[in-house]
Amino acid sequence: MEVIEVGNLRKQYRDRLAVDDVSFTVERGEIFGVLGPNGAGKTTTVECVAGLRTPDSGTVSVLGGLTGTALKERLGVQLQNSTLPEKIKVWEALDLYSSFYRAPADWVALMERLGLADKRDTPYGKLSGGQQQRLSIALALVGNPEVAILDELTTGLDPQARRDTWELIEQVRQDGVTILLVTHFMEEAERLCDRIAVIDSGRVVAVDSPAGLITRVGGRQTVRFRPSRPVADAVLEALPEVAEVRRSGEQLVVTGTGDLLLAVTTALAAAGVTPAGLRVEGATLDDAFLTLTGKKIPS
Ligand SMILES: Nc1ncnc2c1ncn2[C@@H]1O[C@H](COP(=O)(O)OP(=O)(O)OP(=O)(O)O)[C@@H](O)[C@H]1O
Predict the structure, then answer these.
(1) In this predicted structure, what is the pLDDT of residue 168?
(2) Which residues form the ABC transporter domain (predicted)?
């Protein structure tokens, strides 16, 4: 069953077209990712889904078309740059937010799950960036939502806190919550998302599983090595298997398809070059993203 349906969404801010034409559906129990470069229109899209912005045209339906209070009861939202009053304490924020819902979660348990128990009496303004982020996730989940919208979930968290948050989100999904996740991080998208909409310049360029997106790159591989002596790019570029030759420090990075490794090593042997530290890598979600959008997301 579809929990979120977005059809031909369009949103303009004055002279800036933020969302041009975005359509996707999210199934119950899914973690659905919205991935795209800066300014692609991800936040605007999910704000429209959350009912916080009115689209200029197109349709948005959440949980069969709920609106107003009925929707707020069943939807949890964590938005980028949402701030709380400096002086509100962690427990006060959780207690206050839980009072907005008829059947809230146990906020004490949630506070513990997010590693905030020892910050219970700390004012929001005195929390670190990562702790503020974790509190905002807790506040999105305190209403026991059926659908959670999480925008840049782990931005600002250190690697350990990021991994802990991913585990938490996996647990939340196991509880049956449908999650719409905006992210910049390929690793996060690959680890968490069942399906991903890749958005670029306000349009959906692909919707697929992470593996499906990678397959679209068409078996692209990368061979890396340090040549024992200088070798001209043209030697490798002449091979039909080779699409691109780059240099990264002392390393040569050769991208291509087919039996790339054999073609490259044979050509190097013919040129009297030994490849040191030879590594072969398959396509990644980064490659798929680059192919689909022509842009690279900084990690
Ligand atoms: N309130 C606003 N008023 C005017 N322009 C806006 C507003 N909000 C966003 N924009 C512009 O609309 C475009 C899409 O922004 P949006 O925040 O939706 O993209 P995004 O993909 O979430 O980007 P980021 O990853 O940088 O958050 C951008 O060019 C942005 O500058």
Answers:
(1) 86
(2) 4-226
Q: Is 40 in the pocket of ligand 1 (CB under 6 A)?
A: yes
User: Residue 42: CB within 6 Å of ligand 1?
Assistant: yes
CA 41 – ligand 1 centroid, Å: 6
Q: Which structure tokens are listed for 193?
A: 């998302």
pLDDT of residue 59: 96
Contact 252, 226 (CB under 8 A): yes
The reply to whether ligand 1 has any atom less than 6 angstroms from the CB of 55 is: no
Sign of CA dihedral 78, 80, 82, 86: positive
C-alpha of residue 276 to centroid of ligand 1, in Å = 45
Do 115 and 86 share a domain, yes or no? yes
- Residue 296 structure tokens: 């690279």
215-224 pLDDT, tens digit each: 877 778 899 9
CA of 42 to the centre of ligand 1 (A): 8
- The whole domain housing 247 covers 219-282
- Residues of the chain predicted below pLDDT 70: 81-82, 297-299
* Antiparallel, parallel or unpaired: β 16-27 and 2-13: antiparallel
Number of structural domains found in the chain = 2
Mean pLDDT of the chain: 91
Compute the distance between CA of residue 82 and CA of residue 46 in angstroms, rounded to an integer: 14
Task: Specify the pLDDT at position 298.
Answer: 60
What is the rounded distance in angstroms from the CA atom of residue 280 to the CA atom of residue 60?
44
H-assigned helices in 175-232: 186-192, 210-216
CATH number reported for the structural domain that contains residue 278 in this entry: 3.30.70.100
Q: How far is the CA of 62 from the centre of ligand 1 (A)?
A: 22
Instruction: Report residue 260 as tokens.
Output: 């790339």
Other CB atoms within 10 Å distance of the CB of residue 244: 13
